[in-house]
Every structure is written in C-alpha cells, then in structure tokens.
Amino acid sequence: MSAPHLAARGVACGRGRRPVLTGVDLAVRRGSRLALVGPNGAGKSTLLRVLAGLDAPHAGVVELDGRALRAVPARERARRLAVVSQHELPPADLQVRELVALGRLPHRSPWRSDDADGHADAALERLGLGHLAGRAVDHLSGGELRRVLVARALAQEAEVLLLDEPTNHLDLRHQHELLAAVRELGVTVVAAIHDLDLAGRYFDDVAVVDAGSVSAPAPAADVLTPALLADVFGVAAVRLQHPVTGRWHLVVDPEENAR
Predict the structure, then answer these.
(1) Which residues of 20-29 are buried (b: 16+ CB within 10 A; e: fewer)?
(2) How far apart are CA 196 and CA 219, in angstroms?
(3) Where does the signal sequence lie (predicted)?
(4) How confident is the model at residue 67 (pLDDT cuts 50, 70, 90)?
(5) What would the mean pLDDT of 212-222 be, rounded to a whole number?
(6) What percent of the chain is modeled with pLDDT above 70?
(7) 196-213 pLDDT, tens per residue?
C-alpha cells in the first residue's frame, strides 16, 4: 500500500506552549477531500497550521508522501502545499490580480509578481471573479476576499490544498460554487468546515476534532449522524432524506433543544 499523501503521526500541537491536541494520527489519501469538523476552539486551525508546516508540532511528525515535512525545502513545500488561512489580511494597496499572481512565486523568480503566464486570470475566472481583477484589495467585501484568497491558492497549482473555514463570510450560492470548484480540481484537500451539510456534500471523509483529539477519517455518511451532534456539539438533531436528491441531511430539532 502506498504512503498517504499527507499524514500526521503521533502529533501534539497547541497555541504557543499550551497544548491543544495530542496523539494525532491522520492519513489523507491522495486526491481525497477531508473535512475537519468540531466545536469552535477545538484546534482545527491549529492542526491545519501544523499540517501546512507553518507551525512545528510539539511532538510527532507530519509527512508528505512519506517524507518528513520539516525535511522538505521551503520552496518545494510552497510549490506542493497551498494554504488559505482564516484571518489573513493582505496589503491594502495590492490589486486583486496582483494578489492572486503571488500564488505563482514558488514557480518563478521571487521578484516577479506579474501574471505573464495567465494563471492568475484563469484562477479568477474559475471562481467567477474576473470582474474584480483590477480592484484594490481593501475595497473587497469579506466574502470577496475569501474567494480571492482561494483563487490565489488555485493559481499556485499545488497538489495539496489546506483551507481554514473557506466558506466564512460567503452567501449560500458562493459557498456551493466555491466548494464545487475545489472539488473539481482533483487535488488533495484538507479543510476546516463548520457547516456539517457542506462537509457531507463536498468531502469524501470527515475527521472530528474535539476534546484534545482527532478521530480517524471516515466516510462522511458514517460520521455525520445525530449522535455526533449530541456528543460533540450538545444539540439534538434528526436525519432526514431529501426527497429529490436522496441525500441525508442533519436537521437540528428546535423543540428538543429548547427543553
């Protein structure tokens, strides 16, 4: 059996010196899409930063194709891993096309940020953002900025995409359009997602981050159950099947939760 595309083995990590997660064993198959779900503050963002190599684990090792991530040169890592953080604030004086073109830096000389190869414009068009190419970054709404940052990751053409709450600030239509576009890339994706319906629809596997640990990835249909909502989120829910698509959806029971 081949090595996982991205893996954590015995990883412990935290915020500063404070431990948040311990004993994390995670294996992400090449080309699969893994959703990290769990309560706010459980450590999803912390884990993503460690998987991306932005923070060092307190213990254990992260591997890329069976190779310790810390042994991968920074430039190679930048070519192979693309990261969209939750709270990134790019320089206000950049235009959108310039920001997205920065995704090409790992592939060429560091002093070039133009889009001579057209990747930035192609990424913008893919997400329906071509009309924003000449706009200043500080004139974007929160949702527009999120989509532009994902476009930068697409322009990077990395084989692993790490997304921290990519649908944050997006309206319903753009949530689905963005995740559908990501799904069509055919790359390995690990994303922190708070919307369980989106996790079930657009991701192959789900891992639950809660109480200092991370569950083994499993098919979304097996993980996203009323028992999960009760145990992890403390709310009662029922599972209903959509009459048209046949998909199963978790629906919070307001009467049960009001008791």
Answers:
(1) bbbebebbbb
(2) 13
(3) none
(4) very high
(5) 94
(6) 93
(7) 999 999 999 999 999 999
Two structure tokens written together for 134: 């000449």
Q: For the whole model, what pTM was predicted?
A: 0.91
Task: Output phi, psi for 148, to 5 deg.
Answer: -65, -40
**How far is it, in rounded angstroms, from Cα 6 to Cα 37?**
18
Quick: pLDDT tens for 112-160: 555 556 889 999 999 999 999 999 999 999 999 999 999 999 999 999 9
CA angle 136, 139, 140 (to 5 degrees): 100
Q: Which domains does the chain have, with CATH numbers?
A: 6-224 (3.40.50.300), 225-259 (no CATH)
C-alpha–C-alpha distance, residues 230 and 100, integer Å: 41
Q: What one-character-per-residue DSSP string does the chain give?
A: -PPPSEEEEEEEEEETTEEEEEEEEEEE-TT-EEEEE--TTSSHHHHHHHHTTSS--SEEEEEETTEEGGGS-HHHHHHHEEEE-SS----TT-BHHHHHHGGGGGGS-TT--S-TTSHHHHHHHHTT-GGGTTSBGGGS-HHHHHHHHHHHHHHHT-SEEEEESTTTT--HHHHHHHHHHHHTT-SEEEEE-S-HHHHHHH-SEEEEEETTEEPPPEEHHHHSSHHHIIIII---EEEEE-TTT--EEEEE-HHHHH-
Residue 167, token pair as written in the block:
């649908």
CA 219 to CA 106: how far, in whole Å? 34
Residue 239 and residue 226 in contact, taking contact as beta carbons nearer than 8 Å: yes
Query: How many other C-beta atoms can be found within 10 angstroms of the C-beta atom of residue 106?
Result: 19
d(C-alpha 128, C-alpha 85), whole Å: 21
Length of the chain: 259
